[in-house]
């Protein structure tokens, strides 16, 4: 158990380099990108978006009926599609570290709900889950929008670009969801599911909490850089390097030939 607790922070800091921000290099690459590239960008952004994937995994963890899965995923998809479209179209922005911190809290919330925490620890009836998934979808969509708005989108064909990106997000979500459903379906057939399902959700909650701390840490360094004078240059370089690697477009150039002037 001690080794697991040591490994979790290391794994998450490694995941930061896998993250889904938009680097300066990405901004240059997307200048000549067409709508198909925006679809691919959206898909890659979702499949590398560990916070989104953890939340989806928590949502479907105990869902076994196909109709229930469709209902909840539809609520989540509708929510994040609304804010992704309108926040990007209207230029509504917020600090993406803080938005991602709230997204991390949604992972904690769903894991807590899976553990029946509202009844056991708070002695209250949990809020309507369908509405909560929809509301959390709005938050996740705003997070996607803040990332998309880092790119030089321009005004020409803006709506189509946003819709193309959103379509890519949905395709990426379908791919990730398919793997999750297969894995969970197989796991539910074993005795270990009953034994370790609670542990798995505790792990989800811990991961969500660590993601929250990571995002708040990044926010502090971004907004209050003067408060970290020791090794400031080295520390800044580390964050810059991680930021460059944080993109859903990392490796994108290898798959597509962008127009070069």
Automatic annotation (TrEMBL):
The chain crosses the membrane at residues 43-63, 96-112, 128-145, 165-187, 199-219. Keywords: Membrane, Transmembrane, Transmembrane helix. The keyword Transmembrane helix applies. This is HupE/UreJ family protein. It comes from Oleispira antarctica RB-8.
